[in-house]
Amino acid sequence: MFVNFSKILDFSSNKRAIPAFNTINLETTQGIIAGALKAQAPIIIQTSENVINYAGLSTIYNIIKTQIEDNSEDVAMTLHLDHGKSIEVVKKAIDIGYPSVHMDASAFPIEDNIKMTREACLYAHEKGAMCQGELGSILGKEGLIKMQQGEDINKIMTNPEQIEEFVAKTEIDTLAISIGNIHGFFVADNGLDLERLKKIHEKIKIPIVLHGGSGIPEDQIKEAIAGGIRIINIDTNLRIAFRDGLKESFNLNSDLIDPRKILQPAKEAISEKVIDMINQFTI
Ligand code: G3H
Ligand code: ZN
Question: Are 182 and 140 in contact (CB under 8 A)?
Answer without folding.
Answer: yes
